[in-house]
Amino acid sequence: MLFPEIPVIQYKNQDDHLAFRWYNPDEVILGKTMKEHLKFALAWWHTLCGEGADMFGGGTADKSFGTDRLNPMAHAKAKTDAGFEIMHKLGIEYFCFHDHDLVAEGETLAESNKRLDEITDYIKKKMDETGVKCLWGTCNAFSHKRFMAGAGTSPSADIFAYAAAKIKKAVELTVKLGGTGYVFWGGREGYETLLNTDMKFEQDNLARLIRMTIEYARSIGFKGDFYIEPKPMEPSKHQYDVDVATTCNFLRAHGLMGEVKMNVEANHATLAGHTFQHELRAAIDNGVFGSIDANEGDLLLGWDTDQFPSDVYTATMCMMEVIRAGGFTNGGLNFDAKPRRMSYDAEDLYHGFITGMDTYALGLRKAVQIIEDGRVGNFLEERYVSYKSGIGADIVSGKAGLAELEAYSLQREPQLPASGRQEMLEGIVNCVLFEGKPRMRRWNDVPPPTENTPR
Ligand code: XUL
Ligand code: CO
Questions:
Q1: Which of the residues are catalytic?
Q2: Which residues pair with 183 in a beta bridge?
Q3: How far apart are CA 262 and CA 280, in angstroms?
Q4: Is residue 445's pLDDT more than 80?
Q5: Which residues have C-beta atoms less than 6 Å from ligand 1?
Q6: Which is deepest, 192, 254, 308, 381, by most CB within 10 Å?
Q7: Mean pLDDT of 312-340
């Protein structure tokens, strides 16, 4: 036992600082247990590898787990043991990994693959013993200097080939561990200047690599989902998978729509200048909603801080979208998150997870209350009611064209659209968030303003 001082974390209401306050895994909400709704996953890289290093200083957290790093297999096994202990104590049933989060790379590809075979035998045994599952796997094709100019988008065909070989192995490991997803995050799939970059050729190559991966994975029996994880920048300046909409365009242009979904990350959404909810809605509306990297950025900093989520408002809006999508199928909520550099001990790691899990548990509870309250949903529906009949219905059905709409408009001066009532809606959300059951007069009983309502 690596963290003897940390208890198994339980749901209770009394004031115990290492306990869940809102996450009650077996409580049934909307016909499913909370753990089925939320499908929390641990990210191997942050939790078991990340030591808190930044641009200006080394790590503050020790992730040697009592082993000598010169013995990579011993270190990898100790990391695995720690990971399973953490998942057990938190009741987390899934994990996500990059190939070389699991064990350090060897000198050659062959040696690296041998190490990966050995460590995944070890991990698989532990999975069988505990029932822990793999949410998704991926390949680190961005850290090593060989990938400085990209992997699938590298100007060097040898590097493309090497990335393909590494991805082949990562897919095999994902299948071996029963992963229900495979992620492409294009860390260095982008460019710095068009003076040295053939953007179209690079994007076509990226699509070739994704197509090869899909074909190979399906040929070895992978039945899960493929996801692209959009991110606008960092480390590349212009990243090809900027946001969900841009990535959908890439998929459509290369005939990959329907074969690849999205892993939407909260911090990547805000870096792209969007809300997290916007990115989730864009994925749902395009039929590509898949999985979530649940974290949070610091809006005053311009980089990917990957903080554990604590913003209940954002989590609530996120869970409204997840419910709208009909819940997760192969995806889940992966904590692509780490404690701050000054929060460096084991207790900090547990606090990160507890706060993150409670934030999403509360988000789920509040999302359900907002939906059941009905006022926000009713208002939204009512706002578009003019398209249900008359000229609006003719627009939607295609019966009316420009000529008909001109004839219609020559007959009448249009009224302004009804008020958007944004402040009222924000107030309703606050009432649900902070008062539980709203007690004030039913604002929504008042119909939306018409042309006679004073403005
Ligand atoms: C980087 C990031 C990655 C992906 C997996 O910003 O989010 O960790 O989640 O490669
Ligand atoms: Co991520």
A1: 98, 101
A2: 138, 227
A3: 9
A4: no
A5: 98, 138, 183, 185, 229, 231, 265, 293, 304, 336
A6: 308
A7: 98
Q: Does the 28-373 domain belong in CATH 3.20.20.150?
A: yes
CB 301 within 8 A of CB 265: no
Q: Using only the alpha carbons of the chain, give its radius of gyration.
A: 24
Count Cα atoms within 13 angstroms, Cβ side, for 314. 22
Q: pLDDT tens-digit profile of 4-47?
A: 999 999 998 666 789 999 999 999 999 999 999 999 999 999 99
Q: Which atom from ligand 1 is nearest to the alpha carbon of 268?
A: 6
Model-level pTM?
A: 0.95
Q: Checking phi first, is residue 108 left (phi over 0); if not, alpha (psi -120 to 50) or beta?
A: beta
Domain boundaries, the chain: 28-373, 375-445
For a substitution probing ligand 1, which of 185, 189, 295 has the most ligand atoms within 8 Å of its CB? Answer: 185
Instruction: Say how far apart CA 180 and CA 135 lie, in whole Å.
Output: 6
**Among candidate residues 47, 41, 85, 29, the one with its CA nearest the CA of residue 292:** 41
Distance in angstroms (rounded) separating the CA atoms of residues 268 and 277: 12
Give the three-class secondary structure for 83: helix
Q: Indicate the residue type of 410.
A: L
The answer to whether residues 49 and 41 touch, using CB atoms and an 8 Å cutoff, is no
